[in-house]
Amino acid sequence: MASSAAVDVAGAGRQQALDGSNPAVARLRELIGGHESTAGWSRCWEEGVTPWDLGQPTPAVVELVQSGTLPAAGDATTVLVPGCGAGYDVVALSGHGRFVVGLDVCEAAIHKAKQLSAAAAGGDVGSNFFAFVAADFFTWEPPEPFHLIFDYTFFCALHPSMRAAWARRMADLLRLDGELITLMYLAEGQEAGPPFNTTVLDYEEVLNPLGFVITWIEDNEVAVEPRKGMEKIARWKRMAKSDY
Ligand code: SAH
Question: Which domain range does residue 140 map to?
Fold first, then answer.
C-alpha cells in the first residue's frame, strides 16, 4: 500500500493529505519550485499531479448553496471562482440566478473543467450558467466586477509574497457591495508549499486594510476527511471607504 502510494503522484478524485508526507504534494512542490510560477502549475496539470482535486464539489459549497444565503441580485448574480482547477465548485455554485466564471491560469485545467462539466450536462452546454476562462488572476480584466467571489485552496496555493496582491485583486474584482467567501485551508507546520502555512490572521492582515471585515466565521464541519479540523469558512464584506 505504502509503496504504491509512493509512485502514484496523481490521484485526482481521491481525498489526500495536503502535506509534505504525501508524495504527490512533494512532487507538486518540486514542480512549482518554491515560488509562484504559472509554468509550474501547468506542469502539475499536464503530469496529473493534482492532489488537491476532490473529484467532486466541495461539501461546504454544496451546503452554502443549500443554505439559501448566497447573494441574490435578481436573476443576475455573478460569481467568480479563481484558481478553480477542475471546476466542480463552479458548476455546483451555478444556477438559481447565479452565473459563475471559473478562472484558472492553466489551459489544461480549463480544458478538463470544460470536459467534465459538459459531460455532467450531458453535452447540453448551451443552457449552462457557468463559463471557464484560462487567464491569470493577477492580470485578468473582466467586463464587470462580481457580486460574489469564492476562494478555496487558492490563497494557500499562492506564495505568501503574493498575498497582498491577492487581496488587491479581490477588491478590484468584487463590486463594492459584493461578498467574498473564503474557505480557508489552514495548513501549518509546513516547511514549504503549496499549500503554504496559513492562518486566519494572514487573511485579515491583507484584507482588513482594504476595508474587508469578517461578517461570519465558522469551523468547516463538512471538510473532507484528511482536511477535518483544518478549515474555517469566512464571509467578508467591505466597509465604506470612509470607515477605514
Ligand atoms: N480550487 C481548486 C484548485 C486548487 S489548486 C480545487 O479546490 O480543486 C490551485 C489552482 O490555482 C491550480 O489549478 C492552479 O493552476 C491555479 N492557479 C495558480 N496560480 C494562478 C493564477 N495566478 N491565476 C489563476 N489560477 C492560478
Answer: 52-243
Q: Which CATH number fits the domain that encloses residue 74?
A: 3.40.50.150
Query: Is the Cβ–Cβ distance between 186 and 210 less than 8 Å?
Result: no
**Residue 25 forms part of a structural domain:** no
- Element of type H or E holding 5: helix 2-7
Coil, strand or helix: which one is 200?
helix
Tell me, in angstroms, the distance from the centre of ligand 1 to residue 81's CA: 10
**Residue 14 is assigned to a structural domain of this protein:** no
Residue-by-residue pLDDT tens, the chain, 244 positions:
333 333 455 555 578 999 989 999 999 999 998 666 789 999 999 999 999 999 999 999 999 999 999 988 777 899 999 999 999 999 999 998 999 999 999 999 999 999 999 987 766 655 679 999 999 999 999 999 999 999 999 999 999 999 999 999 999 999 999 999 999 999 999 999 999 999 999 999 999 999 999 999 999 999 999 999 999 999 999 987 766 6
Of ligand 1's atoms, which has the minimum distance to the CA of residue 106?
15
CA of residue 217 to ligand 1 center, whole Å? 23
- Counting the structural domains of the chain, the total is 1
Does this model's pTM top 0.90? yes
Residues flanking ligand 1, CB < 6 Å: 41, 52-53, 82-85, 103-106, 109, 136-138, 152-154, 157
**Domain-located, residue 170:** yes
Does the CA dihedral 63-124-141-185 come out positive or negative?
Answer: positive
End-to-end CA gap in the chain: 54
240 Cα to the center of ligand 1, angstroms: 30
Question: Which residue has the least CA distance to atom 7 on ligand 1?
Answer: 153
Residue 57 lies in a domain: yes
* Cα-to-centroid distance, 241 and ligand 1 (Å): 30
Closest CA to 229 of 239, 237, 240, 221: 221
